[in-house]
Design a protein that fits this description.
2 helices, two-stranded antiparallel sheet, 11% strand, 71 residues
Length: 71
Amino acid sequence: RSVTVTALDEEGNTVVLKPQGFDATIFQHEIDHLDGILFIDRLSRVAKDIVSRKLTKMNKQMKRYKARSLA
């Protein structure tokens, strides 16, 4: 994997970076933050369904835990 990033340095000069591998993934992740994209937006429909079910289960568990600790 690779990504090309064009930016300006502190003096206004254009800088082109071409990170690869894990570094490219990190750059893309941070660029996505700036664009308002979450990692779940890039998941397949099946993966989103799996994550959704797990989060729903965790939410129910947390509600039960809170209810017990307040009783």
